Fold this sequence. Notes:
Number of domains: 3
CATH class of the largest domain: Mainly Beta
Bound molecules: heme C
Radius of gyration: 24 Å
CATH superfamily of the largest domain: Galactose-binding domain-like
CATH topology of the largest domain: Jelly Rolls
Structural class: mainly beta
Distance between the termini: 63 Å
Amino acid sequence: xxxxxxxxxxxxxxxxxxxxxxxxxxxxxxxxxxxxxxxxxxxxxxxxxxxxxxxxxxxxxxxxxxxxxxxxxxxxxxxxxxxxxxxxxxxxxxxxxxxxxxxxxxxxxxxxxxxxxxxxxxxxxxxxxxxxxxxxxxxxxxxxxxxxxxxxxxxxxxxxxxxxxxxxxxxxxxxxxxxxxxxxxxxxxxxxxxxxxxxxxxxxxxxxxxxxxxxxxxxxxxxxxxxxxxxxxxxxxxxxxxxxxxxxxxxxxxxxxxxxxxxxxxxxxxxxxxxxxxxxxxxxxxxxxxxxxxxxxxxxxxxxxxxxxxxxxxxxxxxxxxxxxxxxxxxxxxxxxxxxxxxxxxxxxxx
Length: 351
Ligand code: HEC
């Protein structure tokens, strides 16, 4: 006689990729275990299931559970730290030669001037604030921009916004973004159940996870592109963009749920007239769900916004953006910074 592991799932009504601040998310956890029964039938009690809600600003220790399909861009500060010598003296949450990032974040969390001061200290090196016997070496090769991104990342690690909150097995969540500046924040709903096992049989547990992110995707976080490239350095963070596009250039964003999405807004720049952006499902020639006509400006650096309605679409799809131009010989026809997915109820009231 063995023990079969439980099956745990989280049903979410509506969109399974994004959350919108004004739209509550209805969810329900389902647990089924061949030996113990099920949550729906009542043989498994709601208090035997652990359901948690956690928010993450991105780029921290919740991220590993994300798949590439979540379009999670790593915090540029983390990428820079990973490529530098910081880890030889600093650990995320325990002291080493230098203080842990968490301690640094806790110490300066209410200090608005800290970012600039700490960035300067990373570049110049220094001592005397933490343990007296150690000195931080200088990093003269780092630009102020790079050091600032590193410090921004370190200060995001206070752990305060990541404490999971225990929630019911079913309900409706009003999700808001705690930090308005963060564009790649996400909520994570997790549900775990450990079955009762049997005589001489160890209990087995199972966890289901759903992540819902803010409805803004940076253009440079594509999964695949054809005839365009990313401009900007890691330290430019969200200011990077996709550019150098020609008629027919395309970008693929995998597994986007367009349920309840009423419109897409693009932040773009172009000096060329007659440019449009098509959104198609599942292939370059797949169903056309949206076309945005974009207007040109005299300067290639003038960022503008264009909003185009999206045909009612259900479920997860690979989203292809294809750039078109009336004059097929034009080059360098578009820069794309980000795209924002509007909820159908918001976009309807906008027009
Ligand atoms: C040789 C070891 C060493 C290296 C390498 C190092 N640090 Fe430090 N760091 C320290 C020590 C020691 C302190 C504590 C200094 C003090 O007490 O003033 C410190 C302090 C800090 C602080 C807090 C400063 C304060 O005044 O509270 C930050 C932020 C920091 N380091 C970031 C970094 C970053 C980012 C890197 C990589 C670019 C880095 N460190 C590389 C040893 C190091």
